[in-house]
Design a protein that fits this description.
Number of strands: 5
CATH topology of the largest domain: Rossmann fold
Number of domains: 2
CATH architecture of the largest domain: 3-Layer(aba) Sandwich
Distance between the termini: 37 Å
Strand content: 5-15%
Shape: elongated
Helix content: 40-55%
Structural class: mainly alpha
CATH class of the largest domain: Alpha Beta
Length: 328
């Protein structure tokens, strides 16, 4: 399906973690073999909530690119580019902001949720309120057919479709309406049992290996009601068991049985998990180590992706300006 375009991005807020991998990137690796894929590092989007501190801005971009490479994205199969390098995104975002009703932006569920979640940050800004316009520009400028998302992201895709319809109605049929490509992601809890999130400090980074990986897995929260090894446990509330479901499926029935019977201890269970995670992540860690030792590859990956992205966006913007009759 080479003619079908898939578009997705990730914000560079630091090294990617297991939640990012199993929630999105693992699926991207599969999609690159089926579609014409554009995957971007959304550094402008990162500024909508992190504009006050940009000290790690460049390093975070490099970390994300290294992780995407490590996870198996192949620049001969997909395009990995930097959002801010493609200035056409900003131009289309500006034009969309001229035609998007304020009420559409204010009703966005993520806007209200993040205002509540990030109450310690001053994000009542024009950029944060208007980020759905930038998101729509990111998608529509590539005339994407599909956007891989979870169900919680469907309102964002629908808003993008509304903006496309409004533009096409006002001017000319330039943009197709992208469809969500629903993905069933594997969900992993954080080390403390809560949602895995950098803001909670409970993540395992994709690059973590050796002593760092050992330290994190051995610190994972298990059934708090289980004091002694012989106490019966409840694996349904154990983060370690949730990880076994992803990394060690074949042993899940026996681990479930032994835990409930109190015949396997939490330390032993964690050591077994560490072994399985290490085996699973070995090829990813080898690729991560390789690109860490060849940092020039980060620039090469982005430059090649930028070139492909630039070609496509320039073509789209030419049609946009013509449709709006602003092609002076």
């Amino acid at each position: 399906m080479e003619n079908k375009v898939v578009l997705s991005g990730t914000r560079p807020t630091g090294a990617l973690h297991y939640g990012n991998y199993f929630g999105a990137v693992e699926n991207w690796v599969r999609l690159q073999n089926e579609y014409d894929c554009y995957f971007f590092v959304a550094d402008w989007h990162a500024l909508t909530t992190g504009y006050e501190d940009t000290s790690n801005y460049k390093n975070n971009i490099s970390e994300v690119v290294m992780d995407l490479y490590a996870c198996g994205l192949d620049i001969d199969k997909c395009h990995i580019f930097l959002q801010s390098s493609i200035k056409e995104h900003a131009e289309l975002n500006l034009l969309f902001s001229m035609i998007t009703p304020l009420s559409w932006l204010e009703r966005c569920p993520t806007y209200k949720d993040m205002l509540a979640q990030l109450s310690d940050k001053n994000i009542k800004t024009h950029g944060f309120l208007g980020y759905p316009c930038l998101q729509a520009a990111d998608i529509l400028i590539y005339k994407a057919d599909f956007v891989p998302v979870g169900e919680d992201q469907l309102p964002h895709i629908e808003l993008t479709r509304e903006i496309a319809r409004r533009f096409n109605f006002l001017y000319d049929e330039v943009f197709p309406e992208p469809a969500p490509l629903l993905t069933k992601a594997k969900v992993l809890p954080g080390l403390d049992g809560r949602k895995m999130s950098k803001s909670y400090g409970n993540t395992i980074a994709i690059k973590d290996r050796g002593d760092e990986l050992n330290k994190k897995i051995m610190s994972m929260v298990t059934d708090p009601g289980r004091i002694k090894k012989t106490d019966p446990g409840n694996p349904d509330i154990c983060s370690v068991f949730a990880f076994h479901k992803v990394f060690n499926e074949e042993e899940v029935p026996s681990i479930n049985e032994y835990c409930r019977a109190g015949t396997i201890g939490c330390v032993e269970c964690k050591r077994n998990l560490l072994k399985k995670v290490t085996e699973y992540m070995k090829p990813i860690h080898e690729r991560r180590e390789y690109i860490e030792n060849h940092p020039e590859l980060v620039r090469e990956i982005i430059n090649k992706g930028n070139e492909a992205a630039k070609t496509r966006t320039m073509e789209t913007m030419k049609k946009v300006r013509t449709a709006m009759k602003i092609d002076w």
